Amino acid sequence: MLRDDLVAYLDEVLHIHTIHDYGPQGLQVAGRTQVGLLAVGVDAALATIDGALTAGADMLLVHHGVLWGEAQRLVGAYGRKLRRLITTDLNLYAAHLALDAHPQWGNNAELCRLLGLEIQAGYHAFQGVDVGVIAAPTTELTFVELAQRFHTAVAAPIQVDAYGPPRVRRLAVCSGDAARSLVEAQALGCDTLVTGERDYTMAHAGREMGMNVLYGGHYATETLGVKALARHLAVQFDLPWVFIDVPVDQ
User: Fold this and answer.
1) Which domain CATH number covers 13?
2) How distant, in Å, are the alpha carbons of 7, 44, 59, 84, 208 from that of 31?
3) Which range marks the domain in which residue 198 is found?
4) Taking the model in full, what pTM does it have?
5) What digits encode the pLDDT tens for the residues 68-104?
């Protein structure tokens, strides 16, 4: 399909131009005008780019793109990465907060679906956008059962802080780096936080606050959104896709 048609669709359904992020999102590097194979991944790392090229992809869609904050000089490792994209004519599309917050294909929406949770509200706002969600189990759920589901969902090792009630009733779910939202989550009536990476500054907080916390890794919890979005695009446009897995240990 035409790259511009795909980009226009993604921009619209992800509300790319209305969400203020750390840097410009959407099409960050323009390449060839036709997209026959879509590659998706978490990070626009050189290894992810090379994986997309090896797979024969025409566009790489990622959660973490190459534009953050102030402009960088195209030198060193960063320059080599940008030159790889440009010289190979590979399109790069990034959706950061837009994919965290999306109610259908976002990281947190997909986590809730896999965990058997119903979204009730948003929380943990950044620049006016709720990037996390407040959710409740659709049926009675113990914390042990939740941890088992979480381990299956992220397909990666998890860390468990079991300091809250044995039966979970109200949860805060926020992929990536949201350990510091624990205080906000408790203030909103949550007994459990589900997030990605552990923050040392919050190492004792779960125990002291009497809260359950599940950590699945920043990377693993953010593989879900790009995959969910790719599955949707495959149905919407009959567009084949491949996931480029470049794990990050935390």
Assistant:
1) 3.40.1390.30
2) 12, 15, 8, 11, 51
3) 100-218
4) 0.96
5) 988 889 999 999 999 999 999 999 999 999 999 999 9
